[in-house]
Specification:
The chain has about 240 residues and is mainly α. The chain contains 13 helices and no strands. The chain has helices at about 1-15, 15-35, 40-45, 50-70, 75-80, 80-85, 90-110, 115-125, 130-155, 160-180, 190-200, 200-210, 215-235.
């Protein structure tokens, strides 16, 4: 597994595109958090990280599919997938290696944002809720793990990396926001909208991003992640 993980990391950081993707993630978050008037902390008159955790999922909707789109697509396009299948390595370690590599890249993108926490804590006169922020970071990583699993699955569906990116971005968007939109339909019976909303990622992410770690939200994210990794294994196990 670790050999596959290292290979994926070398491939991602072996080109300028990988570094530009991380730089773009940090730049966009920084602009939304400190520069743009409608979302910046200076516009609201108080310093906290809530705007960052509101904006980051939408940027991850693009970043994570860009990270995972070549996971299996390139292997299929170049013909190395058939070689990998003959190696003495199980399918599960192979998928796990690619998934862990994707999460390592996400972590590399998220860690520098701790500088935002430091900056905002210096701007705040009364201090900030570090415990709540820590919980929100956990929620962001759980969200990214779900997106990475979806992206890995989409990459296994086609040898075209661009098609994998588009499918992954659309699937992540649908899972994140579609159920929340459906829950507001007036044609739904009373009380059903609440359960429809719980099927989507956004409701669980909002819960965790408040700094409240609920076991139901963690189970949801882990179940969604393992579901798409399982679907990836099923797809790749077919002859």
């Amino acid at each position: 597994m670790w050999a596959i993980c290292k290979k994926e990391l070398r491939q991602f950081f072996g080109s300028l595109t990988g570094y530009l993707s991380l730089l773009l993630f940090l730049l966009l978050n920084g602009l939304f958090l400190f520069v743009f008037p409608d979302t910046g902390v200076f516009e609201f008159g108080y310093a906290d990280m809530s705007r960052f955790f509101d904006i980051s999922p939408w940027i991850l909707l693009m970043l994570v599919p860009a990270i995972t789109m070549r996971s299996f697509s390139d292997e299929m396009r170049s013909g190395t997938w058939e070689v990998l299948r003959t190696r003495p390595i199980g399918l599960s370690p192979l998928i796990a290696g690619k998934f862990v590599a994707a999460m390592a890249v996400v972590l590399a993108a998220v860690l520098p944002t701790l500088l935002y926490v430091y900056t905002i804590s210096r701007l705040s006169a009364g201090g900030i809720d570090l415990g709540g922020i820590a919980g929100s970071y956990i929620g962001l990583l759980l969200l990214a793990s779900s997106f990475a699993a979806v992206g890995t699955y989409c990459s296994a569906l086609t040898p075209n990396a661009l098609a994998a990116f588009l499918m992954s971005a659309f699937a992540c968007f649908a899972l994140f926001s579609a159920f929340g939109s459906l829950s507001t339909l007036t044609s739904l019976p009373a009380g059903v909208g609440y359960y429809v909303e719980l099927l989507g990622i956004e409701a669980h992410y909002r819960s965790v991003s408040r700094g409240v770690i609920d076991s139901r939200d963690i189970v949801y994210f882990l179940s969604l992640t393992f579901l798409f990794l399982f679907l990836t294994a099923r797809k790749l196990s077919r002859p």
